[in-house]
Amino acid sequence: MHTPLRQRHPGPHWLWAVALLAMAVTLAPAAWAQKEVHPTMKVRDLPEVLRAQWNQTRPEMQSTSRCAAAFDNYNDYDRMTLRCSIYIKLGAEGARRAMRYCEEDREKKHIHAPCKIVLEE
Question: Which domain holds residue 70?
């Protein structure tokens, strides 16, 4: 006589898979909507010289382009910088590069204020 094959019951492994899937679906939108992780400033808060530089650079910029600026005061033109990462595929990478370029310039020019990502109004 033939004995039936033992039926496999789904074990607790499928519960883990469902739990992971649920967590991924829940957390994914938060990751997609993540804001800038670097400090930011508005274009209107830039000194006039840096704002003019921003306006000159703006036509070349894409949605993923980022600029970072640092300055100690609005009158010392030798101690301010605006550095941009324009031709980049990811906004987060553009922000990292702009911050790195700005930090390098900030050290050379002995600017005390931190670099910040520049945001449009």
Answer: 40-119
Q: Look up residue 18 and give its DSSP letter.
A: H
* Integer Cα distance of 33 and 94 in angstroms: 16
Residues 113 and 70: their CA atoms lie apart, in Å, by 6
Backbone angles phi, psi at 78, to 5 degrees: -75, -15
Retrieve residue 116's tokens: 């910040």
3-43 pLDDT, tens per residue?
Answer: 555 555 555 665 655 565 556 555 544 444 445 589 999 99
Is 0.85 topped by the overall pTM?
Answer: no
Does 67 map to a domain?
yes
Written as one letter, the residue type at 62 is Q
Provide the CB-side half-sphere exposure for 13 (13 A, CA): 4
